[in-house]
Amino acid sequence: MRLVIPSIRVDRAVVPIGLRKDSSGQLQWNTDKLFATNNRLDLVGQVAVSVNPGDGGNVVLMGHNYNNSGAAWSGFR
Questions:
Q1: Which side of the chain, N or C, has fewer Cβ within a 10 Å radius?
Q2: Please, which residues have CB within 8 angstroms of residue 34's CB and are 6 or more apart in sequence?
Q3: For residue 43, is it within any domain?
Q4: Is 18 among the domain residues?
């Protein structure tokens, strides 16, 4: 699945984001999949408990843009 918003130059893959326990046993969102790699510069996470696009209801997305700002990662272009 992809999120495409041409007016703001967004075209990103969407990955599922679930929960995991941290070292103290507290639940936290597992955002490890959102970190940039050489093959995937920017990703969007879909919170696993939200509905899929088109199913009706609220879709919850999260992400960070690594390469469209002054702080671009030159090693990942």
A1: C
A2: 15, 17, 43, 44, 45, 62, 63, 64
A3: yes
A4: yes
d(CA 11, CA 74): 19
Predicted TM-score (pTM) of this structure: 0.66
User: Using alpha carbons only, what angle is made at residue 75 by residues 45 and 43, rounded to the nearest 5 degrees?
Assistant: 10
Nearest to 38 by CA among 66, 19, 70, 1: 66
Q: What is the domain count for the chain?
A: 1
**39, part of any domain:** yes
List, for residues 35-64, the tens digit of each pLDDT value.
Answer: 766 666 668 889 988 998 889 899 999 876
The CA-CA-CA angle for residues 56, 12, 36, to 5°, reads 125
